[in-house]
Amino acid sequence: MITDCAVYTAGCRGSARLELSEAFEASQEPESFVWLGLHEPTPQEFQAIQDEFSLHELAVEDALKPHQRPKLEVYDDTLFVVLRTARYVDPTEVVEIGQIMLFVGDGFVVSVRYGEGMALQGVRKELEARPDFLKQGPGAVLHAIMDRVVDGYIPVLEGLDHDIGEIEHDVFSPDGTSSSERIYKLKREVLEFSRAATPLVEPLHRLVRGHLPHISGDTREYFRDVEDHLLRVVSQVKDSNDLLTSMLDANLAQVTLRQNEDARKISAWVAIAAVPTMVAGIYGMNFEHMPELKWRFGYPAVVAVVAAVCLWLYRRFKRSGWL
Q1: CATH number at residue 26
Q2: Positive or negative CA dihedral for 161, 180, 251, 253?
Q3: Which of 3, 73, 170, 287 could form a disulfide with 37 if both were Cys (CB 3.0 to 4.6 A apart)?
Q4: Could you give the number of structural domains in the chain?
């Protein structure tokens, strides 16, 4: 579905929305370029756009498959950029991943968006409010979209850090809460987020230091700022993943320690209970000739001895930390 199609001349948007059949002709006007926005297009819709702008068939094939790795490829004089958006859903602790694909050519930008994570209408409005920057052409649109995608990673990091803090508190709390399942699920979301952010480092590196078509020297400086933000995000994602791994190990160690403590307590009580059990077993054998059987104080004496031995064992186990 086409969400918007407009021509920009010297950084200013044209008065009317363009029809697809008029887009290529408008893109060839001096100091002009066309920005065509698509949301989850069908192959039939994309075929018309491919014919209009002569897009490479391999890039179009990738653009119709929404599960692509972030990358930058050059087909003739057209840049094909794949970005992955991220949004953190705190109630379910899930990172929702979307996709944006960009064709940046001579006088045109075609943006293809999959998912509901990040609409580009806001980016378009912000750029239209900056005609001095927008007049730099398609490269300015590419920068604005990449900048918005990377900025969108920051709230995801904040949500992950908050939940990691909660897990850290649970792991080391005295109530013995096991958080293994939550840690494992959150670790999967961190890895999914890492697969969206980390591969984007190489395309941004090329945009900053390479000489790519439609990327002017002035625009390249702006990409350096985006690269700096992304490197910090990638570093924090790695730290979050390492911290979750450490917490998973610590949680397993805590569970093992609690199990050992429970086993020691059970063993101590079994040892204490074994004393009266053994004495009762001996006197329950019903032999005729048994010591103290005819003695008046035999029963109280046996009970007293059993109680004394049990008390002595209890104090020893308590002192050694088994109880």
Answers
A1: 3.30.460.20
A2: negative
A3: 3
A4: 2
